[in-house]
Amino acid sequence: MKKLKCILIDDEPRNLELLTYYIEKYCTDLQIEATFSKRVEAEDFLKDDNKRSAVDILFLDLILDEGTGFDLLDQIDYSSLHIVICTAHDEFALKAIQYEVVDYLLKPIEIQDLQQTIEKIKSKHKNQEKASYDAEAISKFSTNSYELDKPVIIKNKNAIELVLSKDIVFYRSSIF
Description:
The protein is of the alpha/beta class. Helix content is 42%, strand content 21%.
């Protein structure tokens, strides 16, 4: 599995340094793309579709130099990002659920909590990749006659079968 790319946003440089250290030392499956201590800089980065699409995980503090992490999320398309809130404030946990965050880590962040969060994200990411692969395979089915005679490999628990595309009426895949 390729390294997951992440960005870190926190208005306190010491917190950024500590989280950077934890990720580099204990979460070797991650690659830090950028760190931001200013909300406006992070927002500019995340509004750029090319830059945002290269990021998998967003580690986000909630109390920022200008506004909150929720204000930032309201300004960007974060649908493809795994959001991890890193804050000293537990009173925002319920609101974070509305933003479908993967996890809510309270500062000081415990290394084992961070590692569990990363494992959860890797599992979700793997399921998303499989679902994407399945969708791509399904989209290859075509009504063009030259493709209808091509065999498709169907795997199940007990056997592997070759079935002609034209004989497939319904296809269902489970990612779990």
